[in-house]
Structures are given as C-alpha cells and as structure tokens.
Amino acid sequence: MIHVWPLYQYTMVDETTKDVVSQDSTTQSSPSQGRSVDVVDGRLFKPLVVLSAPIVLAEGLDMVYFLVDLYWIGHLGTDAIAAMSYAWPVIYLGMSVGFGIVTAGTVLVAQYKGTGRFRAIPSAAGGTISFVTILSAVLAIAGYALTPWLLTLVGALPETAPHTLAVQYARITFLGLVPTFWFFVFNALSRGWGDTRTPLKLMAVSTTINVVIDPFLIHGFSANPLFEWAGLSALETSLYAQTGFAGYGIEGAAVATVLSRSVAAALGLYILFSGRLGFEITPSSLRLRRSTVTQIVKIGSPTVVEMTVRAGGVAVLTAIIAIEGAAAVAAYGISEYLVGILFVISLGLARGVEAVVGQNLGAGQLARAKRAVYLSGGIAVALFTCIVAGAYPFAESIVGVFLAVEGGDVAADAVVQGGAAFIRVVGPALIFFAVFQVILGAFRGSGNTKLAMMMASLELLVFRIPLSYAALVWLEAGVTGVWYSIAFSYVIASVVAAVWFFRGAWIIPSVLSKQDQ
Q1: Where are the alpha helices (DSSP H) in 281-428?
Q2: Following DSSP, what letter does each residue of 139-186 receive, concatenated?
Q3: Average pLDDT over the chain, rounded to an integer
Q4: What's the whole-model pTM score?
C-alpha cells in the first residue's frame, strides 16, 4: 500500500533573508500516512483522542509489567513485597534519565515535521538513538555496582531479607537497561511523528510475553499457583520431577521483564531502520553530530533533571516512610503501583499533548495548541473521577490482591490498612494531578522543558517531601499524615501550573536552531 505525506501547505520565514518561503509537504511519499495522525488541520477532538488513546493504552500495558510482577511476587511473601517497594525507587532513579532524554526525540521530530523539514528527521532520530545507547550502557554499569548502597539510602537495612531480595531484583533490571532505553526512544520518536499505534502494538506483544513467562520464571514447577488454579497439580509434580526447576524467585520477575522488553526493542529498531514508521534511519544517521547532540542535550537535559529529581524525591520519600517500618514501605509500594495505573494514563495524555502542541506550534497555530490542552485536561478529569469513584469502596480488597501469602517478617494486616488509607486519602487528589501532568505536557511540547522541570520540582521538593516529613516526624501523624501531605501537594501544584498556563508565559519560539530554518 502506498501512502503520502500529510496534505497541508505551510509557510515559514527564512531567518537569513527574511523572505517567506512556501513549502509543499506533499512532494514526497511515505509509508506512514496510515499510522501518522494529522493534528494540524480539521477538527481537533477526534485526532487528539486517536493520538492519546494508544499512548494511554501503551503506558497502561507498561504498568502491567510491574503489576504482574507484584502479583506473582506477592505469592513469595511480604518480605518480597517490601523488597520490590525498596527496589523501585532505585530502579526509577536510573530509568528517569532515559525517560527525560528521549523527550528531545519527541520534540525534534514533532517540530521538524510541523515545519515540513522532513530531511532533518533521520539525523535527529539516529543521533538520539546513539546518544541514548551510550547513556544507558553507562547507567547500567553504575546501577549494578551501586545498587546495594543505594538501597540503604532508601531505608533498606543491610543483611535483611528485603534488602537482599531488592539487590537481586534491581541488579538484573539494570543489566537490561540498554534494550529498555531502545524501546523508550522508539516510543518517543513515534510520538513525535504522530504514530502512537505502532508502539501500542509492540507493547502489547511485549506485555503478553511477560504475562506468560512471569509465573514460570518466578515459581517454576514447584508451588506455582498457576498449576493449582488450572487443576494441573499432577502435571506440575511431573515437570518438577523431570527438571527440578523451582523458579528463580524475585530474580525471575526481573528476567521476565528484561526479556520481554528486549523483544519490543528489537522490533522497534527494525521498524525504524526499515523506514516503516515514515522516515528511514540509516547507519550514517547514527553518527553523533555536534549540532544534534547540542539539540538533544538542550531540549532533553531539563526533562532529565525533572525526572531525576522526581525519582530522587521518590527515593527520599521512601526513606522517610521507612521510619515507620517495612510494613509502611510495603503499603506505600503497593499503593504507588496502583496509583501508577492512573499516573500512566495522565502521562499518556500528557505525551499526546506534547506531540499535538509541538506540531501545531511548529505550524504557527497557537490557539489550536491551547485548545488541545483544554480538551486533554477535560478528558483527564472525566476519566480520573470515574476511576477513583469506582475504586474508593474497595480499597482494602484491591490492596489485598497483592498479598496472597503472609510469610515473612512484615505484617500483612498493617500493609493492607496502610495501602487502603492511601487510596482513600490520595485518590481524589489524583484528579488534580492528572491535570497537572497534561499542563506539563503542553510546556514540554512547546520546547519549554525548563518550565516543566521547575513545576515538577516545585511539587516534589517544596510541597510533597517537606510536608510529608513534617507530618511524620514533627506532627507525629503517622503514615496517614504522609498520605494527606501527598494529596495536598498534588492539589496546590496543579493550581500553580494552571495559573502559569493561563498567563501564557510558557510559550517560547521554536527550539530548532536558526541554521535549520
């Protein structure tokens, strides 16, 4: 099937001659029209939904990785749950760099496409891949070496079961950081191009693989709940007798995640290098050029700082909660995984806004870019209100799903009660947090990643962490006081961001350098 470039004309001003240059984007053909969503012409609501929905679904599938791990690890006992809760802030600290730097790929591709400079896209995309590959290799080595020490910083006591298990899980995850970052960059480049359906398909494949192999790599053929549910205990006994395989425990969850992400990364790279996305990356495109690196660092660094500060803040908050003991940390860990479902929805909407705002600002359509933010914010409020209202009455049951086995030193009842209180207190505030994420997506889409970084840092460093510490240590309000502090930080941060958005001070000129004009 033959496709063509999006059908629109645009004009731009040459910065050297100040002449208006008319460009026709229909002069080239591409196999991507069926994937790329045109968001600069026509009605906006449907294209915005079509663009954002696959991102939300893809991010939701990404969260399935962790929920599946959490569920099967829950059958290993509460010590394993506590280990996951300690390990995640450390892993997130490493991954946050990748989350941030790939934003440069989204912005560059979106704005190059919005202004019709298609020939510059392969170089920007290839440079992003090379830069991310080097960065991920360095982070993998550093993360593996520093994991035991980093876990002590978030409150895990050395030589305890949760610390030992957390080291095992985190180290394997760090070893798989390179293919994980490859998939991140594929998603980012696809979003910038306007194709959110292909990443969704790859994420579905990857998640399916993870769901299938997770219980076997964790539990093997010994005491595997899957065989019991299926009424195949005799088969399990036979397989264990033949293989002696009892699973890898918590390490198996990490192996399953790395393997399934690697499959998605390989497929994503194949699509990029085959030109099936809409632009073709060649080996020469991978050469790191100074101008490309400068753009990547300029655009991506503020978001890297933002994400790293956020990850560091999560680690600090985990350490604060650890003052109350491992049960409080386990409750926070489960709650954060559940909240993560809603977070990825808001993040998906925000990333859709990034692409829409980037392309429309590139095409000189400011009013349309703003309207996209309003629509996405409205969708976020409606979705989150329904989800929170539905989950509210079943808080204990939801948390209890992940505590199938009570073995270990951590009290299961305390974990359930703490997690349920989190859902009831923080849940309503997540509606505000969703709007906050959408507005940050608008800031990033305009290229104003520094402002997004400042807002995210404000929420975490000025509101959430200090208030949580004060509630727990000074006011002696217990872990419930921390939950109220988190809720308040979401509300006040969304108000501050909304005020800034309506002032219009977030809009800056195109981040593309003048020599590219």
Answers
A1: 290-321, 326-362, 366-391, 395-400, 412-426
A2: HHHHHHHHHHHHHHHTTPPTTSHHHHHHHHHHHHHHHTHHHHHHHHHH
A3: 83
A4: 0.75
